[in-house]
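Input structure tokens:
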């Protein structure tokens, strides 16, 4: 049965009209994900007792740190938001990722306005909302994005890859055996090679020292390294290394014309003139043609459901 990642999502992103002004936000990407993930929706501002619609709230920076203030009433909502965030995140038995509302004083990951006073125009910079800050601290390696950045093809690609790899690892942790962990490492070898060869080798070393008595400790150490490996999108050159590695499985069976065509496509990708998916698709046809079971099992080529395939949009 295909894995269904568990994703916590801001409720205003297509689920409910709970924005401060009573609006609902159109989020086509979130809607597209609906058949492939299990959503847990949350609106922190509603949960701490603010109605809909409601007067705006702002993050105000001062000597005592950041405060969440409702200027029209003067209410300081900092403690309520921080308490809710901790209680809500404590209640999650499992989660693989988050899609949160951009520019929100509660949910923004990186672009909430930070004010020097309660005045709207008195903006000193940007940062995370108070609920999002709790998420980032509690789940530093989860797949976390906002709906704004997910309109960018490369950000979507990285988010989806993180999300589904982490969900598959969660299934290993829920019914752990050494055999399942080794299989997970084997199926993700090329993907991990693209993300971080150093982490891939370190994770292999962790597995090599594992036995039944140390399995739970091994899972924790392995999971930390997996999260660190997936924390940044692969570099352009790393993807090229993986593509050449895959090409090596078929080069002895290909005509000169086929080899030339692949290498030409790879050079176009190197020069950022065609997307990654265009080159990977060539290898995928050879995987089927030559019935290469090892490469067919590699998540580098199939990191998430085909219905969500966005590789053709991703240039590098």
């Amino acid at each position: 049965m295909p894995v269904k990642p568990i994703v916590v999502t801001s409720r205003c992103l297509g689920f409910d009209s709970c924005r401060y002004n009573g609006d609902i936000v159109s989020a086509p990407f979130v809607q597209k994900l609906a058949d492939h993930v299990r959503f847990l929706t949350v609106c922190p501002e509603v949960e701490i007792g603010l109605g809909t619609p409601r007067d705006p709230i702002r993050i105000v920076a001062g000597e005592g740190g950041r405060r969440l203030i409702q200027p029209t009433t003067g209410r300081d909502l900092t403690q309520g938001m921080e308490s809710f965030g901790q209680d809500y995140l404590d209640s999650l038995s499992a989660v693989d990722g988050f899609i949160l509302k951009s520019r929100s004083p509660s949910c923004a990951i990186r672009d909430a306005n930070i004010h020097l006073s309660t005045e709207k125009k008195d903006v000193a910079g940007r940062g995370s909302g108070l609920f999002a800050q709790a998420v980032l601290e509690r789940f530093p390696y989860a797949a976390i994005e906002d709906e704004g950045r997910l309109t960018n093809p490369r950000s979507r690609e990285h988010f989806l890859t993180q999300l589904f790899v982490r969900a598959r690892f969660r299934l290993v942790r829920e019914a752990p055996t050494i055999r399942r962990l080794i299989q997970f490492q084997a199926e993700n070898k090329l993907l991990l090679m693209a993300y971080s060869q150093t982490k891939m080798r370190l994770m292999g070393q962790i597995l090599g020292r594992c036995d039944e008595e140390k399995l739970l400790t091994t899972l924790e150490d392995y999971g930390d390294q997996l999260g660190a490996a997936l924390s940044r999108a692969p570099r352009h050159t790393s993807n090229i290394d993986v593509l050449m590695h895959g090409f090596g499985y078929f080069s002895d069976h290909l005509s000169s014309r086929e080899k030339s065509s692949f290498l030409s496509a790879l050079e176009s990708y190197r020069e950022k003139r065609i997307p990654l998916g265009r080159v990977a698709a060539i290898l995928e046809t050879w995987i089927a043609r030559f019935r290469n079971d090892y490469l067919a099992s590699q998540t580098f080529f199939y990191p998430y459901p085909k219905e969500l395939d966005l590789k053709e949009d991703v240039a590098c």
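Strands lie at 6-10, 38-42, 58-62, 65-70, 75-76, 97-100, 112-115, 123-127, 143-146. Residues 6-151 form one domain.
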